[in-house]
Every structure is written in structure tokens, then in C-alpha cells.
Amino acid sequence: MRTKSTIIRKTSHPTKLVAGLALSILLTNQIATGTETPVVLGTASHYVILAKSGISTVPSSVVTGDIAVSPIDSTAITGFSLILDGSGQFSTSSQLTGKAYAPDYSSPTAVNLTTAVSDMETAYTDAAGRTLPDHTELGGGNIGGLTLTPGLYKWGTGVTIPTDVTLAGGPDGVWIFQIAGNLTIASGNAVITSGGALAQNVFWQVAGGVGVDLGTSSHFEGIILSQAAINMRTGASINGRLLAQTAVTLDANTVTMSAASTVNLVSAAEVTGPYTSAAAQSVDGVARTITLPRSDSTQFYRVGSDTGLTITRITVSGGNLVIAYK
Questions:
Q1: pTM here?
Q2: How is the chain split into domains, by residue range?
Q3: 85-115: per-residue pLDDT in tens?
């Protein structure tokens, strides 16, 4: 996915800086990254698994990234043998390279999770609401053996993957799959990416009442936005995210976040670059701010993120430039 960026021309006049940046953001937000723009996950992107009614595992699973449930409480995270951190804000597990969150943990966890679940639902609605599909009812819902290029795909039925399917395209390519029924991949089969295609640019929006079933020892790529459950059978793996509006069930699975949710400020002496990471910057992922020291020299900045974001405020405080985003 092309890095989303906003050019900031930094001067010694704070008011001009703010005005100039506001215009730059307005223009940047109109830039598309291919046929379809990625679905914005908002704060839901902080989690590799996010579910409203529970996350369970049959040990031992290997999960890389944070997991969370809400509005159900931590008793609905089962099989992980969670250990509550001293802060009371999260738990850890030997099966988890990351943290586990639930709304009954200490503040501000509950508020953050309410926002994340809302953002997950907004992302689902965004994916479901995309119009003018490039392909409709492809294969009658059976996409096994096909090679799929970037675009918007729509089915009024469920989708099955009985044999390997390939997503072929470059790193800027975006795939959005709108599935009115359920999604199933057969045991031992895989979703394969080629040509530099990135899992974080692949979105599976699944509306079926059963949800998603990833067969035994199958491998999947992409971000699943399911209105119902996501069930991973024994030994299945995914490079992506599991975002369910009911429950997620694991059974000795490998779940890897498609890409860390990163925000970074890069700078250059001239607008054409080359850009490098801005020195002495500080990114607060909870407050969603980027802070860096101001200087009197004229420089150009780009705010980069691997997920969509919106700049909400730019201020100068204590000699620092503070950029707030959501």
C-alpha cells in the first residue's frame, strides 16, 4: 500500500504552518491508491484479533499482536491462561506476543475498546458500501484456482476456496471482497499473494450468519471483517487480522498481524526529498499525537502511516510541533 502522506512546510510562523497544513491535508485525502482505496480501520488496527463476544483458543496457538474483546469482559478470553499486568490495564499470555485487553480492566482500557469496536464496525460498513464492483458473482462463489487482480469483488452468495487462490498485484494494489454469505477455505489450501501484494491491502467483508471458517492447516491472507464468527480449524494460519462482531475461535493456530500500525514523520530539505525519519520525534499511540522539536530552518515533512488516518489538530507547544491524528 502506498504510504499515506501529508506535506507540511515548516516555517517560523505557527499560524501560517497551521493554515498551510490544513490545505495540504484536504488535498492529500483525495488521493487514491489504485482502483480502490484501503478500508480505514481506525483504532481497530491496533489489534490482530478484535471480537465483541469472545476469543478462545485450544493451546498452543501463536498470536503476534494485541487481542481484545468488548463489550464482553475478560472472562470471555479463554484458553490463554492470562496473567494480569500490575497496571491492571492488560494481560499477557505465553501464546501471545502482545497484550490482551478487555473492558473490565483499568482505565482507559474500556474507553479505548469502545472506540476500537466502533471503528471496526465503521470499517465493515465502509467495505460493504463500496460501489461499482469490478467483478460480480465471479465463479458463482467458487474462487478456487483463480488468480485475482486488485479491485472490488461482489457476491450475493457465500464464497468457497476449495483449492489455492492467488492475489496477484503490486504493493499498491487493493482487494475488497464483498460477500453476502459465508466464507470458507478448505483444509490444506491457501490464499497466496504474489507480485508484492500486501495482506494489509486485502479486505474480506463477510455478512453471512455463520461467518468465516478457515479449514485445517489452511493459510489465509488479509483482513477479515466478519459480521458473525471467525473459526480457525486446527493448525490453520493467517497473515492479517481477525475482526469479528461476534466471536473468534482458535485451535493451535498461527495468527500474525499483517503490518504493525505505524505512524512516522519524515523530513527533507526540499519537498522532493529524499525523506528520512524526523529526528527526536515522539509518537504517542494512545493519545495519537506526534511531537517533535521546532527549529527556525525551513523543512518539509510527510506524515506516513500504513493505515488511513486523519489529522485533527496542529499546535505549537513549548517549542514543539504537536500533530494530533485519528
A1: 0.73
A2: 7-31+265-325, 42-257
A3: 999 999 999 999 999 999 999 999 999 999 9
